[in-house]
Amino acid sequence: MSRVSRFIRFVQRYAGLLCVTFGAAVLASVLDGFTYTLLIPFLRALFDTPVSVAAGTPTAVEWVHDTMVGFALRGERSAAIRNVVFIILIAVALKNAAAYAAGSLGTYIRESVARDMRVRLYTHVQHLGLGFFQRMKGGQLISRLIADIEQACGIVSAALVSAVQNAVLLLVYLIILFSLSWRLSLIMLLLAPAIALVMRPIQLRIRARLRSAFHSRGEIAAIVGETLEGARLVKAHGAEAYERRRFAEAVGHVFKGVVKAERLAVLAHPVSETLGAAAVLLLVVLGLSLGNAASGAMRPELFIPFVVIALRLVSPVKALTQFPVIAEVSLAAAGRIFEVLDEPADDVDSPGVLECPGIERDMLFEDVWFAYEADTWVLKGVNLHVRRGEIVAIVGASGAGKSTLVDLLPRFIEPTKGMVYIDGVPVSSYSRRSLRRALGIVSQHTVIFNDTVHANIAYGDQENASREAVEAAARAANAHGFIQRLPRGYGTVLGERGLRLSGGERQRIAIARALLRDPPILILDEATSALDTEVERLVQEAIGRLLQNRTVLVIAHRLSTVARADQIVVLDGGRMVERGRHEELVAAGGLYQRLHALEMVTPQP
Hints:
The protein is of the alpha/beta class. It has helices spanning about 5-10, 15-35, 40-45, 60-70, 75-125, 130-135, 140-180, 180-230, 230-235, 240-290, 300-310, 315-340, 400-405, 430-435, 455, 465-475, 480-485, 505-515, 535-545, 580-590, 590-600, and strands spanning about 360-375, 375-385, 390-395, 415-420, 425, 440, 520-525, 550-555, 565-570, 575-580.
């Protein structure tokens, strides 16, 4: 399906309103042309020329005037002037009212389509798997959600409604001009394609440069997102100057692209207007020549409106020549949106899925293989049995596949081969929502939202979480003390990414969030290695409460934290190479013993 047809599907629901908008635009165009033709009876009345069209061969315009407003133009000269002025004012008022209706309705449709596209895109993004977010820069995605959609929807009002209005206006003007003098009108039509051919190369260059600028704009958003996310790292490494240079280069690309495109756009205006004025002046000269010829004499009250309308013809012609550029830019932006919408929604449930009740007996990873890319295996035939209430630690070097293994349980990713079961039921048979509600995940990368402390702890269950329940969870997580010291306690807004909190405080907020949900299964990606001793003690106490009466998978980065686990699984290169309790694995002298020995001789922070 083409970009045009796909975009039309977003506009279809507003088809009725769009027809009303087009009707208002057509009415405004017809009234615009009619208003200028009223110069004919006005000049007649002003110079006391007989108003009856029966005196000579009437033009079609004169016949319309005589039929519609002729009754008001007969009589004394002063009364005729007054009446024609009054009619012109009414026509101008109606034209502007219709133009206002078309413009305001066009804006409403444009913003409605933009809203629908943003909701559709955001909803679709929520249904995409983690692989998409590993490929797509956050700034590029934000740019598509905001700037690209704004640009794509510009075609609805600024271009499409305007194009209809200008096309009708052009048609009305041409009908009027041909009715006044078909000879001069034919000459004018021969000049129009020449003007369009001169303008075409300029329009093509504008299009190419704007496309490049749009891509660079997405890079700006990506850089800003990265530097805000890594603000601590930037400051810690003194990389502010480097980031400023990187940002300045990206901004420079946008600056150059937009400036070059705008220069051409600005150039297009005087070039087209100069060519149009030259064409009109040529028509004036030819009109005077025809006026001097006995066979082609054109009455003054007709020639003056002809010249005025011919001059007005430049504006709709110029607008229509710009429409292809606007349309191409809008469709290019729409193409970037459809690229995301075309991503397969792999985080959605199939019909007939079950509700996950939690865990009654055990969970099983059976011959699990996984690869992010073809033939690049991250997990290789892992078999793991976890009984209800057990604490299982997963250890191994970086890149061994620890996080990938636990990501299979909440179905962030799906096994390439093999199966994961809870109580003998494949997790793929459960709805993702119910499965994930049965899981509590405390990650080493704690996410804090720019919201209150209460909202961060109650995240995902705002309506059902009472103040008492949130406070109880915070106390159990050893977080109540520092929360009370915040300016507004639980009502304190923590700021973007919670930068006003320390690492230990953010970790305790995350533990309180998990305690409030009270999940039967817990995934713990330990993150205490960077904390000082006192804070680590508070966090470990909170984690100890969190582990009670739960089935737990712990991704361990410090082996000293997993010594009390019921079983320890050692991964190496995606394979399970050892399994047992701490004492057994140390005595076995395998990889776990070497990792343990290395940690024992390495100073801990």
